[in-house]
Design a protein that fits this description.
Layout (H helix, E strand, L loop, with lengths): L1 E6 L5 H20 L5 H16 L1 E10 L2 E8 L9 H17 L4 E8 L12 H7 L8 E8 L19 E5 L7 E8 L3 E3 L3 E11 L5 E8 L2 E9 L3 E7 L4 E9 L12 E9 L3 E7 L6 H9 L4 E7 L22 H7 L6 E5 L9 H12 L3 E5 L22 E6 L6 E2 L1 H5 L22 E5 L7 E2 L5 E8 L2 E6 L5 H5 L7 H12 L9 E7 L2 E7 L8 E4 L5 E4 L2 E2 L4 E7 L4 E6 L4 E6 L5 H4 L9 H6 L4 E3 L10 E5 L6 E2 L2 E5 L4 E10 L4 H19 L1
Parallel strand pairs: 3-4, 3-5, 5-6, 6-33, 8-14, 15-16, 15-17, 17-18, 18-24, 34-36
Antiparallel strand pairs: 1-2, 2-37, 7-9, 9-12, 10-11, 10-13, 13-14, 19-21, 20-22, 22-23, 23-24, 25-26, 26-30, 27-28, 27-31, 29-30, 31-32, 35-36
């Protein structure tokens, strides 16, 4: 019960102030003039003024409100190291039990910092603000943070908290923890294929003095560099960009004894390889209708540097024309096929037959070029089945089929079962119908003894497109010279651009077109595991999260040749996947996630803020078992900590449940007061 006085003036406030001024003047005059009954008259005037103010006695029925204490439990990935998670659970249970024993204290528990694949670092104060968002500041008793101390949203000062109550940090973990990590200082996102890019990294050791680590640098699983590195040393390493697409560079440091975790001993950098210029050599054996199709395709690609020669005058053609009257450019065979052959990423023979232009020794050079990683595409016409076929050269060892003749009849090209799975031919526009919505071809080069299954078939189900591997290089054989009909739009044409471009990029080892590949890809909040294969089934894939947790996943078929599954990308950092043969890596979020940058527990991060609020930051399990200080209610103080105890601020907040009002000058009481005042004045004047 609370009592008080309230005023509800019967006249405007300005009138009351004017009346008060007039009464003051009258009082001064009466007192200075020593008038009889001056004090009685002043009292009577004051009662009139009080009556105009309309005072009332009030009685409030109030219900006290509880003080609210928040308990924020850190559930970030770093809490999974050692016994921190168990310590946090024990501390929460004990703390909540002790707070509930305090009369008038409401406890709110919130778990924060869970990995979601988006938030970088541990955000506890944001969760604290949300938990107290509906609580008036005069009801907040304090906050307890159960954490390893690695919090990344600590307010700059106590005023930024939005309430005046103690903040206490209960620190899990040990003071003597040791950890080692690799920190990426600088790394490029892109690199020119064939050139070096520099990555700068640093070895960071916490709780470790005077020890060195063996650091291994790998690119796509291949060891590039291995060296001994001292703690705190910054190292630069050059990485050769071998291919287009993602070049995955791993930097891994050897573990140290009694290390907290080895998760952050490895860092990964993905460098996208881009080709400055793709050098392509196109050799046309003779002018024909399809020659321009190849030239237009390659010239339209700004990334392709095309060198094109057409054999117009073979050596056997002798018509007596003087050499000085010929406007033809001599074919620089020695320069192209001996001196500069390795500068080309792809060599295309378009309806080329042996005409004495290239000596046999140069075909040996071409075979060696492919075996060492080059690429050859043969677009065959009747020349391939002739006695002057390039099959009858040292190229027979790398070409995937032997010619036996030519079939001249119309047909619609079909995708084979292998072609429906291969990235080069899969889902070509028009291939979903039967027959495909493509214009017909009218010639097929018959072959036998194919070394690989055809991706496309022609007349009488004979192979039309063959792709094969030879040593480190790749070979493509297109067994018809009528693809120009698709380019000209004959009978509606066909997907010649997609087919020829994919085929060329596969030959030049574009990773997206590999037949066997394991890939990781982030789609929104999900991580997709994708397996490209030509096989009928795939083995399970083991996925390792940044915190070191592993799970085995079974992939399901989606498109032909594609198997996939998804899982939540709920952690920032390096994810790895392996099926025992292939391996894939992807970094979710920043290169150096805050959650794993410093993982040793500490009280120093939260101590300045805790002390500024009157609270404290203390370890709770440094001796092995969880030991919480006593929780003490404190009514009014600026210090909420002491030897063996922590305090909460007890509030006096309440809510009004009922109000009683008794006007002073209403009714008989007011009438008697006023009449008494005037009677006293009359009596004094009558003496």
């Amino acid at each position: 019960m609370q009592y008080g006085i309230a005023f509800a003036p019967l006249v405007p406030t300005l009138v009351l102030w004017g009346a008060l001024a007039a009464i003051a003047v009258i009082a001064i005059v009466l007192l200075l003039g020593r008038s009889r009954g001056a004090w009685v008259r002043i009292a009577a005037l004051a009662l009139i003024l009080l009556a105009l103010s309309n005072p009332s006695f009030t009685r409030e029925e109030r219900e006290p409100l509880s003080s609210v204490a928040a308990v924020v439990v850190d559930k970030s990935p770093s809490q999974n190291f050692g016994t921190r998670a168990a310590e946090a659970d024990q501390a929460k249970e004990q703390l909540v039990d002790r707070l509930k024993q305090l009369k008038g204290v409401e406890v709110r528990v919130v778990e924060a910092g869970q990995a979601d694949g988006e938030t970088d670092g541990t955000k506890l104060f944001g969760a604290l603000t949300s938990a107290l968002s509906d609580v008036p500041t005069d009801r907040v008793a304090g906050a307890f943070l159960i954490t390893d101390g690695r919090v990344h949203d600590v307010p700059a000062n106590a005023a930024a908290l939005g309430f005046q109550a103690p903040v206490h940090a209960l620190i899990t973990g040990r003071s003597n923890e040791r950890d080692r990590r690799i920190a990426i200082v600088a790394a490029p996102r892109f690199g020119i294929v064939g050139q070096n890019q520099t990555i700068t990294y640093r070895l960071d050791d916490q709780g470790i003095i005077g020890e060195r680590a063996r650091v291994v640098v790998r690119r796509d699983g291949e060891v590039l560099n291995e060296r001994s590195v001292a703690s705190g040393q910054t190292v630069k390493v050059d990485v050769d960009i071998k291919h287009a697409g993602a070049n995955i560079v791993e930097i891994e440091a050897s573990p140290v004894d009694n290390e907290l975790t080895t998760v952050n001993n490895r860092a990964v950098v993905s460098i996208d390889g881009v080709r400055d210029k793709l050098r392509v050599l196109l050799v046309s054996g003779e002018p024909h209708s399809g020659e321009r199709t190849w030239r237009n395709l390659l010239k339209s690609d700004a990334s392709v540097d095309l060198v094109h020669f057409t054999i117009l005058r073979p050596p056997e053609k002798q018509d007596g024309t003087p050499i000085n009257e010929l406007s033809l450019i001599a074919f620089p065979t020695r320069e192209l096929f001996q001196q500069k052959i390795n500068e080309f990423q792809l060599i295309i023979f378009d309806r080329y037959a042996r005409q004495g232009v290239l000596p046999i020794a140069y075909f040996d050079n071409i075979a060696r070029y492919v075996r060492n990683g080059g690429a050859v595409l043969v677009s065959a016409g009747p020349d391939y089945a002739s006695t002057t076929s390039i099959w009858r050269t040292p190229l027979d060892s790398l070409l995937p089929a032997e010619p036996v003749g030519v079939t001249e009849k119309p047909y619609t090209a079909q995708l084979s079962d292998a072609g429906k799975r291969h990235p080069v031919t899969r889902a070509l526009e028009g291939s979903n119908s039967e027959p495909p919505k493509w214009s017909r071809f009218f010639r097929t080069i018959d072959t036998r003894n194919a070394t690989t299954p055809p991706l496309m078939t022609g007349a009488d189900n004979m192979p039309l497109l063959l792709l094969s591997h030879y040593g480190e290089g790749r070979v493509a054989l297109l067994l018809s010279d009528h693809i120009w009909l698709w380019a000209r739009g004959y009978e509606g044409g066909g997907p010649h651009l997609d087919l020829l471009r994919r085929m060329s990029h596969w030959l030049m080892k574009q990773p997206d077109l590999d037949e066997e590949a394991l890939r990781l890809r982030v789609e929104g909040k999900d991580l997709q595991v994708i397996r490209q294969t030509m096989a009928d089934n795939v083995p399970p894939v083991t996925v390792t999260s940044p915190s070191g947790q592993t799970r085995q996943l079974t992939l399901a078929p989606s498109d032909p040749g594609i198997w996939r599954t998804t899982l939540p990308a709920d952690e920032l950092g390096l994810w790895a996947a392996s099926d025992g043969t292939l391996k894939a890596l992807i970094n979710v979020g920043p290169v150096n996630p805050k959650e794993f940058s410093e993982v040793t527990s500490t009280a120093e991060t939260l101590k300045p803020l805790a002390l500024a609020t009157g609270g404290d930051a203390r370890r709770i399990a440094d001796g092995g078992s969880v030991e919480l200080p006593r929780i003490v209610p404190v009514q009014s103080a600026t210090l909420f900590r002491g030897d063996g105890w922590l305090g909460v601020r007890m509030r006096d907040a309440s809510v009004v449940r009922g109000v009683g009002v008794l006007p002073v000058f209403t009714g008989l009481i007011g009438l008697l007061l006023l009449l008494g005042a005037f009677a006293a004045t009359w009596l004094r004047e009558g003496r």
